[in-house]
Amino acid sequence: MRSGTAAAAIGAGATVVVIAAALIQSAGDDPVLNAALSVSVPAKYQDLIEEAGNTCPAISPNLLAALITQESGFNPKAKSPAGARGIAQFMPSTWDNGGGIDANGDGKAKIMDPKDAIPSAGKHLCDLADAVKDVPGNKQDNILAAYNAGAGAVIHYKGVPPYKETQNYVRSINALAGQSKKGGKPGTTVTAQQGVAAANAAQKMIGTPYSWGGGGSSGPSTGTCCSPRGISGAETNGFDCSGLTLYAFQKVGITLPRTAAAQYAASEPVKPGDLQIGDLVFYGSSASSIHHVGIYIGGGYMIDAPRPGTKVRFSPLDSMRDLYGVARPVHSSTKEI
Predict the structure, then answer these.
(1) pTM to 2 decimals?
(2) What is the distance between the alpha carbons of residues 281 and 159, in angstroms, rounded to a whole number?
(3) 53/64 Cα distance (integer angstroms)
């Protein structure tokens, strides 16, 4: 199937892509780069990130920018189901117990004000760096894990705790912080031709059963146990969502990480007006909580492996309510992260 006929083949309407575009929020909104920062940062927050990222030697502007990208996508009004608030996603208890500072000097430390929250995040990272300085292992990993799970957990486990969310969090931020100064992660994003070829490879798998943990670079495979609802993929030969995308891009010579969250970290955010066939569509409330990925094919549709009990299929982008963003894989993402 050629790129111009993908949407027509399934009768997709243009209205769906308009709806999806309104939902897409990422750190790519109004990005500006300078010589010191290699992570995309909205212009109005750039100076704050530069200054706060140099609060202590243990952190950097790039690390702080990656952390805030992960936490909120630079959304100052962000609120998590767990109660975290603001651009740096502080828990109110942490903020009220010394985490929050009145950085702009207006007489009050406000958790929802980026002028207070970003410097507070820099200070909090430095405080955490001091708290876990004697913990063995990678220092940056331990600092990030402490921001997510608390310094006590890092000290108790003598390193990054064995929590899946925290481990994904650390991997994703490290990947984001390692971006190149050319506005992307090391290497270049896939071409339009490669994107179409990957979408075509995925299309050949239409009808393949969903298998939790199934699929890889070689094609469908039996999966593992178990999905959040307790459904095992061990008896089903097929794909889960990220297994399908890994397979499709391997067919055009591009190796993606295995999980959806890691695939987002290894890709470059795409603005709504710049979507092209083959871009990856991600779902979740934050970069660290991404739980689903599909391959954009135009007209507001994607190819994906939706969930246990379904098969690889065409799905509208608004088939899930928590569309997080769209990103384009990068050539040099050739290893698990």
Answers:
(1) 0.50
(2) 32
(3) 6
